[in-house]
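User: Structure with flavin-adenine dinucleotide, tokens only please.
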Amino acid sequence: MPIRGSSLYTAEHEGFRDTVRRFLEREVLPDHAQWEQQGLVPREIWRRAGQAGLLLPMAPVAYGGSGGDFLFTAIVVEEIARVMATGVAGFTTHSDIVAPYLVEFGTEAQKQRWLPDMASGDIVASIAMTEPSAGSDLKAIRTTATRASGGYRLKGQKTFITNGWHADWVLVVAKTDPAAGAKGMSLLWVDTRSPGFSRGKLLDKIGQRAQDTAELFFDDVIVPDDCLIGEENKAFVYLMHGLVQERLMIALRCATSLEASLDWTIAYTKERQAFGRPLIQNQQTRFRLAEIKTLAFATRALVDRCVADHLDGQLGPDGAAMAKLWASDATRAIDDLLQMFGGYGYMREYPIARMLTDIRGNRIYGGSSEVMKEIIGRTL
Ligand SMILES: Cc1cc2nc3c(=O)[nH]c(=O)nc-3n(C[C@H](O)[C@H](O)[C@H](O)COP(=O)(O)OP(=O)(O)OC[C@H]3O[C@@H](n4cnc5c(N)ncnc54)[C@H](O)[C@@H]3O)c2cc1C
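Assistant:
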């Protein structure tokens, strides 16, 4: 029985999947190992992705997007995960995490001004919530935006920001009313050419090594009034809404990564011989693979159900949290799959070795597993 039984995807979706696959094979995979050494993908890859139609698949056509449903986004997430092209996983942060805040809460003028350039890859975008002293507890952030003539004066520091090195624009979460806690935060759209903006180091991660992750500094950056996204002091509400899709995307990535890792391992254990027979003929190996196949099957069933709910506009914060918690936890099994490769599993030229470190972050970002349990726990 195949793990993927979903009939959610139409022929049009599958055609798009082929486009994404071909783009990754042609433009990304040949150079990915070198980009991992550099810690960064070339800026030009963003424009090529824009030309190929990979950016902003869900944004309305009127603003340069492809006007597709969430399944187009799911396809980009899955295809990147399947071949571990983690250097360009930031495409989906840009397209399906940042752009939706502009699409859903931006003014007509804001959408017309920025979304077409995001769709073409002329603008690279990030979202900056996390700070050195506040990650899980978002309301404890210290970055402030105080009223200044014609806008806000932004002061603070952000860390672990995906696409931070290449970012032309950053959606910054800042306190506009520090006394009001979660009800005193706003979303500011910040031009990284502004005086007072600077980048710190490109961060050295254990996995996803070609993915640009950086520190950002805002030293009295003046942000004009027309760069407030949505209403002042409503950021927390907007983020709780946006994080549903972000967490579902992480769950999709984890489900796909587990399936890919299982496929590689089944093939390897059929071929590799020890004590005169293929590894898979050992009952211990076969039983563990059977357990992991069942885990992957259950994970896909859960994620598919949440994708279907999301397409119907019915996926809530607790559903997305359960999908992320379960699917990211399921990837712990990749450690056991790596074991079946013996010493080769420890060599980075084998995909399973990179997968182990590339996948680890999924239990941390987008809200950690512990935070997911808090969200689910509140609904009990
Ligand atoms: C590769 C990568 C990319 C990222 N990209 C972005 C990005 O683009 N934008 C962005 O804003 N952020 C980004 N992040 C940051 C990420 O969202 C945070 O790291 C995450 O939310 C956890 O915050 P923290 O690191 O401050 O950990 P902390 O909040 O300090 O937590 C430390 C540990 O304590 C646990 N913990 C916290 N509170 C509780 C509690 N009440 N009960 C039990 N356990 C608890 C946490 O779960 C965690 O295990 C990224 C992180 C990584 C690693």
